[in-house]
Fold:
Amino acid sequence: MEKKRFQFPHTYIIIFGVILAAALLTVFIPLGKYDTKEITYTVNGEEKTKTVLDPDSFEYVLDEDGNKVTKVAPLFGTEDFGGQGILNYVFEGMTVGDKYGTAVGIIAFILVVGGAFGVVLRTGAVEAGIMRVIALMNGKEIFLIPVLIVLFSLGGAVFGMGEEAIPFVMILVPMFIAMGYDAVVGIMCSYVATQIGFGTSWQNPFGLAVAQGIADIPVMSGAWFRIPMWIFFTGLTIVFTMRYASKIKKNPRSSVAYESDSQYREEFAVESQKELPFTLGHKLVILTIAVCIVWTIWGVVTQGYYIPEIASQFFVMGLVAGIIGVVFHLNDMRLNDIAKSFDKGAADLLGAALCVGMAQGIIIVLGGTSATDGTVLNTILHSISEGMKNFPPAISAWFMYIFQSVFNFFVVSGSGQAALTMPVMAPLSDLVGVQRQVAVVAYQLGDAFTNFIVPTSGCLLGALAAAKLEWGNWAKFQIKFQAILFVCASLTVVLGVMIGLS
Structure:
């Protein structure tokens, strides 16, 4: 009798399991709330304000008799319950937020980008370009890995690149598979690299600046410590990825993505046997992609473009690529093929878009992220911070890092996590003898490094969907890398305490 292989649960199943666990927490954990206050800080000479919780204002929600109140999550939320329900978490989660982020904006971004790249891929220009790159590299393809990781890590460090990496995954994954590697290498060189840069940044305006502003320390300070930190972790990622890539090159079947990569391998096996032309039309499509990338970087860095603008930029890219495909008859494209390929490209990422909404449902079941409303999440935040007060500074700082890593499972947004946790962690660091700069480092590393493994991250799920890779298979690969990062990040936080980082 053949032994059944363990099958890792689908992402939907994992999220539903977490929903049930969150619902169970609402049975035992009472509701808590904070007051809020306005804080101001300066970024590049521009004064910014942010509403954050007051860490000294925590109080439990009490009933008329003075007893702590628990609010058990119902099966279905009602209007006066804020939509908080176990079995309506999918719809409620998908409708959270606005076009600038959370669920609605990220879902729309994923679908639009997927559709745009569906059109680009339909032209055949990407495949033709990949075959040309392989010919030019002439067996030295592995040296693309350090170049790409440095560039994407810089993108994360300088302007907080995250969602913007998803389109690049659609290009890099098939390219690395065609070179004899796998989808994992493509994700490591793009999305993972951006998060390495994000977590070790010395000037990121979305995460670092917000955290330092809330902690009331000079914004963008501590670069003398963070730049070497960025160099170390970026180098670590390069070494780990290159070693993994060499292993896959020797034995492709050892890849966790071997089965999901099969479609790409079959396509490139066929194309490598024939002379794939790289025509003027193909070159114009590749030029369109390059112009869009430059346009996006310019918009993000100089104009403050975010999800709505970037989605529109990639839509224009897809539209222009489709017109070029029709005019030059690339892959026998006709006008209706633009619409059909857009539809197919969006459909390929639909699962990731749904997961974004489902993941938001976890927060809804816990009562939301509002500091002033009575929620289970507020009580958890307060209880953990109280528990950190009785340890030596180095241990307290390490616990801050662990806390930020775990909290990132629930609140993946970097600035959102900073707004919730740093008002508590900053004064707590004073009490336990930890420098506030170290508390910010603990936030940075804890927030970013778990971004590429937690199944609640919309960006990660979008990148995995673009690579056609299941989260469970990705997690099997990531466990080892996460362990290495955890040890190195722990040592980094402790080092910050020992040298008195300020």
